[in-house]
Amino acid sequence: MKIKIKPPAAKQLIKDIEAHLPLPVYTTTEVSRSLRQQGKEVRADEELQVTSVVDSGEMGGILCGIESQDKKEVFLISLTHLRIHSDHRLKARIEAYQKARVRSLARQR
């Protein structure tokens, strides 16, 4: 039996993520491909660290700041396009937010 988790409000989730920074994440295959097209070497199986989060409003959702390995650049990637480390304590809450966000964007189209 799968337990449904109510998606958290963006502002509360941001506070929770900030309390657990850095947050270990992985990009989706699509984001990795897009970054490689921009000359950035980021693999989908490479663990990255979210070092900051911002609320970009209803249209953009929660954006995560991820430093490059050489610490010379920061990528802003939507939380919706990141995969959370499997044993992280916020995984279920973040995934609930992601699912609700994807549904909301689909309804807007």
Q: What would you say this structure looks like, in words?
A:
The protein has one domain (15-103). 37% of the residues lie in helices and 25% in strands. The protein contains four helices and five strands. By secondary structure, the protein is of the alpha+beta class. It has a five-stranded antiparallel sheet. The model has no long low-confidence stretch (mean pLDDT 89).
* End-to-end Cα distance: 32 Å
What is the chain-wise order of helices and strands?
Answer: HEHEHEEEH
- Please estimate the helix content: 25-40%
Radius of gyration: 14 Å
Multimeric status of the protein: single chain
Structural class: alpha+beta
Overall outline: globular
Physical arrangement of strands within the biggest beta sheet: 4-3-2-1-5
How many strand units?
5
- Strand percentage, roughly? 15-25%
Mean pLDDT: 89
What's the main sheet like?
5 strands, antiparallel
* Total DSSP helices: 4
Q: How many domains comprise the coordinates?
A: 1
Low-confidence stretches: none
What's this model, at a glance?
The protein is α+β, with helices and mostly antiparallel strands and 109 residues long. Helix content is 37%, strand content 25%.
